[in-house]
Design brief:
Elements: E1 5-8, H1 18-35, H2 37-42, H3 45-58, H4 66-80, H5 88-99, H6 108-118, E2 121-125, H7 131-134, E3 142-145, H8 146-149, H9 156-166, E4 173-177, H10 180-189, E5 193-197, E6 214-216, H11 219-229
Parallel strand pairs: 1-2, 1-4, 2-3, 4-5, 5-6
Helix pairs in contact: 1-5, 3-4, 6-11
Length: 230
C-alpha cells in the first residue's frame, strides 16, 4: 500500500534528548544561584528533579503536559522557600532555550530533507521541543504535541489528530520513532504502519507482540527505504 505521509517522533529519534535536558537543568540552577540563591541552595538539581517526578506522579491528569509539570515544580520550589510569586516566565525561558539547543544525530537532517521533499511530514511528540528553535520547522507540515491534543502516545487520540491534519487514512501513514511502546505499539494500535529507529540495535521486546514492519538503524536507512518503496 502506498505511503502518503509520515508522522515522526522527535526526542531520541532525531536527536539525543538527555544532553539537552541535563544542560537545561544546569542553566536553571545557575540562574537560581544568581537571582535566588536561597532557592538554589534549598533545591539543588537532584532535589528539583525528585520534586518534578513527585509532581508528575501526583498529577496524573498532566501526563500529557510536561510544560505545566515544570511550571508547577518551579512554583512549589519557590513557595517552599516562602516566595509566592515565582519568576516562572524567566525560569521557563532559561529552561526552554537550553532544552531546544539540541544536537541532531549526524544522519537526521540530511535524511529529513530528503524525506520532506517527497512526502508531508508531521512531528508527533509527547515532549515540548520547539521546531522553530531547533531550526527544522521548514521540513514539517504539522506539529502535533501531546500537550495540545490532551493525550500522550501511545493513546490513539494523538495519532488520530495527526491523521486528520495530514488528510490521510491510517494505512497510508508511516509513523517513525525510537520507543517500542509509545511509538511502534502505539501507532500500530491506531492502524498506522510503523518504522522503529533502533540506533542501538536492540532486540524487539517480546511483550509487545510481533516485531515492527521496519527495524532501521538510523534516518538515512529510512530515507533509502522510502526512495525504494514509497
Amino acid at each position: 500500500m502506498t505511503i502518503r505521509a509520515l508522522t515522526l517522533d522527535l526526542d531520541d529519534t532525531l536527536w539525543p534528548v538527555w544532553p539537552a535536558l541535563e544542560r537545561a537543568d544546569q542553566d536553571v540552577h545557575a540562574w537560581l544561584r544568581t537571582h535566588h540563591p536561597a532557592v538554589a541552595e534549598a533545591w539543588p538539581i537532584p532535589a528539583m528533579r525528585e520534586l518534578r517526578a513527585r509532581i508528575a506522579a501526583e498529577r496524573t491528569d498532566l501526563a500529557h503536559d510536561f510544560t505545566t509539570q515544570r511550571h508547577l515544580t518551579m512554583r512549589y520550589a519557590f513557595a517552599a522557600c516562602g516566595i509566592d510569586d515565582a519568576p516562572v516566565e524567566a525560569l521557563w525561558e532559561v529552561y526552554f532555550a537550553a532544552r531546544n539547543a539540541v544536537e541532531l544525530y549526524e544522519d537526521s537532517l540530511p535524511a529529513l530533507r530528503r524525506i520532506a521533499e517527497r512526502l508531508p511530514v508531521a512531528a508527533l511528540t509527547n515532549g515540548n521541543a520547539d521546531l522553530e528553535r531547533v531550526g527544522i520547522a521548514a521540513h514539517f507540515r504539522h506539529h502535533v504535541s501531546a500537550r495540545e491534543i490532551g493525550a500522550p502516545k501511545p493513546d490513539p487520540a494523538i495519532f488520530r489528530a495527526a491523521l486528520e491534519r495530514l488528510g490521510a487514512a491510517p494505512h497510508e501513514v508511516l509513523h517513525v520513532g525510537d520507543d517500542p511502546a509509545l511509538d511502534v505499539a502505539g501507532a500500530r494500535a491506531a492502524g498506522l504502519r510503523v518504522a522503529w529507529i533502533n540506533r542501538r540495535g536492540e532486540p524487539w521486546p517480546a511483550g509487545l507482540g510481533d516485531p515492527p514492519e521496519l527495524d532501521l538503524p538510523d534516518m538515512t536507512a529510512l530515507a533509502d527505504w522510502l526512495d525504494a518503496h514509497a
